Amino acid sequence: MNLLQIRKASTSFAMPFRHRQVAGKHLLTNTEGAFVLLDDAEFTAFAEGTVARDSALYTRLRERNFVRAEVDQRAIEERIRTRKRFMDLGPNLHIVVVTLRCNETCVYCHASRADMSATHTDMSKETAEKTVDLILRSTNPSVTIEFQGGEPLANFEVVQHIVDYALKKNEKVGKTLEFTMVSNLSLMTEEKLKWLVEHKVQMCTSVDGPEHLHDKQRKLPSGAAALPLAGHAHAVAKHWIGRINEEYARLGLDPTLYHVEALLTTTSETLPLWKDVVDTYVGLGCKALFLRPVDPFGFAERSGGRVEYPRKDYLEFYRDAVDYMLELNKQGVQILERFAAIFLTKILGGEDPNFLDIRSPCGAAIGQVAYNYDGKIFTCDEGRMLHEMGDDTFLIGELGKTTYRDLMGHETVRAMAIASNLDAQPDCVNCTYQPYCGVCPVHNHKTQGSIFGRMRESTLCAVHKGIQDYLFEKIASGDPHVIQTFQRWTTVRDRTHFLQTCAL
Ligand code: SF4
Ligand code: SF4
Fold it and tell me: Under DSSP, is residue 36 helix (H, G, I), strand (E, B) or coil?
């Protein structure tokens, strides 16, 4: 890009904007989250306030509220209200850790799993009922109960009890309920599967990529799975993903909408395998891949050097993998990347998909709450993970002692809402990606010793910035196939089958 010759910047032409150079263009964003990409001459005219009123550029800028004299205040208010709709509702996601026991040992385990003999980490039925009682106090008319662990199937009886109890109790409360379970699937049986499908519990698993990598990173001791496949974590997961998808098909559900999704944790060994990872997910029938970097929680910290990597290497991996996914989409294969879908929904769709870790303010307690097996309550699952590492900063209550109002008004919750409000974050406030981004106070606290953090040194900021740079580069390329695919990735997947309502 040439050095710009801006003779005299106008102080009256432009509305407030933020600006960054991407793919040889000037990317401008504003408070409502609209953007324009300008070339040098266009940007110079914009900065000098000399854009001709009858030009196509003027129309483009006016339509996106970049021209002060033509600003549509109502439209700005409406768009911000749409984006921040989640602020009116209260916590939707309620993570219930029914046990810490797990039969797999993963190098990066964020949950700090316990051995299968540690039955003292099982949630009791009494605690489970108190958990549901509190969950149903949420001001949000829609509530998702997500079973986590450890391995939730290791305490299946309590999973069943929570579902039955919540459905019964909801007859008098009338919320829209959804149940999901994050499981390695190795303790699944045909009997459990039948029950889960009948009770509309959505299932999600973890797949680290190709078989050799998955089996190396997620050790499943022989005898730990109810199958001849015992000892082979990948084969076990593949078997049950296939069986669950068969059950959905048997119910007549559209397989493009209803299928098992899997989560990836990217370690240093994953980086060169970007193509194998994508191929593995496509081969398993997954329609989405979430290229999550490893988090600094749980055993990942201990394994540190073995699983960690510089974020610039991660971003190269990300670019290679998503380029390949775009190529596959061109050939008719439907596979999307989750980070991209979250950002694109905000960038292209003007909506916020309410992903709790990338929104402003973040979802800590006001969007999600985590309930531990022992009745302790945390702002989010990541806060609960730090508790397992001996840090109680994000502990906000205890079942039977703390009310819903106490939780929402807790001083830690208020501090986190301020710390994750990008209008108050020193680096974010001037960042071009501020309308679409999010910061994580737990990550800041863990890696930088303050919930506010310093974004210019944050690995999470590096990931968010790098991904948004990539997406805007692709948008700037104007390739119609890429734009079409990106538009498709912003479409919200239908989940009506899993929504359980109860007329009062
Ligand atoms: S603190 Fe971090 S993990 Fe917790 S809800 Fe906020 S962004 Fe998500
Ligand atoms: S986290 Fe980083 S990329 Fe996101 S708005 Fe803040 S400074 Fe920008």
Answer: strand
Q: What is the pLDDT of residues 128-161, one digit of tens each?
A: 999 999 999 999 999 999 999 889 999 999 999 9
* Gap between the Cα atoms of 292 and 339, Å rounded: 8
Look at ligand 2, atom 3, and give the residue with the nearest C-alpha.
Answer: 465
Distance, CA of 41 to CA of 1 (rounded, Å): 11
The DSSP call for residue 99 is B
**Closest ligand to the CA of 436:** 2
pLDDT at 111: 63
Residue 416 CA: which ligand 1 atom is closest? 1
Of 438, 369, 364, which Cα lies nearest the Cα of 136? 369
Query: Is the C-beta atom of 132 inside 6 A of ligand 2?
Result: no
- Dihedral of the CA atoms 333, 339, 341, 344 (nearest 10)? -130
Question: What is the tens place of the pLDDT at every residue in 13-52?
Answer: 999 999 999 999 999 999 999 999 999 999 999 999 999 9
Question: What is the spatial distance between Cα 84 and Cα 328, in angstroms, rounded to a whole number?
Answer: 34
- 64-111 pLDDT per residue, tens: 999 999 999 999 999 999 999 999 999 999 999 999 998 877 777 766
The domains of the chain are located at 18-83, 311-360+427-494
Q: Is the pTM of this model over 0.85?
A: yes
